[in-house]
Amino acid sequence: MDNANKLSACEAAARIASGDLTSEALVRDCLARIEAREPAIQAWEYLDPDAALEQARRCDRTPRSGPFHGLPVGVKDVLDTADMPTIWGDEATFGGRRPKRNAPVVQRLREEGAIVLGKTAISRFGFWFPGKARNPHNPEHTPGSSSSGSAAVVADFMCPLAIGTQTAGSIMRPAAFCGIVGMIPTHGWMPWRNSRNYAESFDIVGGLTRSVADMIFLMRGLTGKSDYDPDAMLEGELTVGLYRTTDWEKAPQYTRDSYEDTVKRLAEGGCVVREVALPETYEKLVETLETIGNYECARSFEWEMAHHRDLIDPGIAELLDAGWALPRAEYLAAQAHAEECRRRFAADIEGVDLLMVPGALGEAPEVTSTGHNQFIGMWTPLHGPNVSLRVGAGPTGLPLGVQLIGRRGDDAAHLLRARRIEEILASSM
Q: Please, are residues 81 and 118 in contact by the beta-carbon 8 Å criterion?
């Protein structure tokens, strides 16, 4: 079939399994899309088309090895790949780096039959300074922060699935800006090793897909847990908690209008919507995220600062210096605050199934910025699942989204709720 790259991951996997589609045909269509669009989108750090096609042919010759058999996947260039370079977005310092081992998520993908199509572009060192990747909806605008390439390749139909990582907002913001589904699961769900460290308290692997069903499929394949079921139906009433945070007035009117319109559509679609007032301590989580993140990140980049400070962007060096200057007592107090909020969060949202907040401050800004973490940063320290969904478009036609925040350990059920919301919104477009 033509344009197999536009199939969902679930559809492509089913057609490969049934023999209606070959992996080689799918990979060829993905590579053709990349050839046509990569000059404008610049979403890849490394590609080896010949190796990808050889893997696809091997998949077509051999029995099905897992749920991802023959599916091409993009992997963020902070995650080690034993057969590809991993340079952490920094050609000047790590241009020759060739890892000997796969990061656990990469190993799992390959064990379950996936073809790692290539490494997706990130901003240098994975910080928020703009990288080369562009937003597929308008290349003059950013696709977000460090998982920008992973979001862009999925949004632009270069491959059906991609892996990203997040420390503060590096999956949620690109997902919102590119208009796709992004998810960070419960913290610690996948081992964090053979990966670029930033802040161990928050570093997490997540996924980027074009639908919630594909995210369920991805999580089932990566975890092996049957409670991630793309065919399951959510039973009972869904209660959505509305929480606007103190950033509400900072958002442009179109973001607030989009959120209120989403609330209206969900209510008309059968959801119960309820205002939620969290205790003031949660609003301090942004400061807590920054304190812990800066303290740990400075220590993660000790070698780079000692040996290549002259190659580090001044803004990053300033951030790392500030992290070294933080008193340990302040860091420990921030850790205690984060743990307190994690401990009480499930009880504090009793009566609702999840919280819904805006996906980002607004539309993706121009490429001179990767955007801001308003509405995003405070949820990362809670260590629970967070899903980004597209809900509409802003005044220039760029995507707008919402985030759905759930309870720690409730990931599979949270995705079913997210899919219900996605279905209601799709039916009311």
A: no
Tokens of 62: 């051999």
Beta strands in 276-422 (DSSP E): 354-358, 386-393, 399-405
CB 336 within 8 Å of CB 293:
no
Cα of 251 vs its chain's centroid, Å: 22
* Phi-psi category of residue 267: left, alpha or beta, with phi > 0 → left and psi -120 to 50 → alpha: alpha
- Location of structure tokens 């060829």: 28
Give the max Cα distance, the chain. 61
- Rounded CA-CA distance 404/184 in Å is 11
Contacts of 252 (CB under 8 A, 6+ apart): 361, 362
Who contacts 47 (Cβ-Cβ below 8 Å, separation ≥6)? 34, 117, 118
How many CA atoms does the CB half-sphere of 224 hold within 13 Å? 7
76 forms beta bridges with 120
Active site residues: 76, 146, 170
> What is the CB neighbour count within 10 angstroms for residue 276?
16
- Distance from C-alpha of 73 to C-alpha of 158, rounded to nearest angstrom: 9
Global confidence as pTM: 0.96
Rounded Cα distance, 198 and 302, in Å:
11
Cα torsion at 154, 155, 156, 162 (round to 10°)?
Answer: -10
DSSP 377: G
Closest CA relative to residue 37, chosen from 104, 135, 168, 163: 135
Cβ atoms within 10 Å, residue 386: 29
**For the segment 233-283, what is each residue's pLDDT rounded down to a tens digit?**
888 999 999 999 999 999 999 999 999 999 999 999 999 999 999 999 999
Is residue 1 scored above 70 in pLDDT?
no
CA 248 – CA 232 distance, rounded (Å): 35
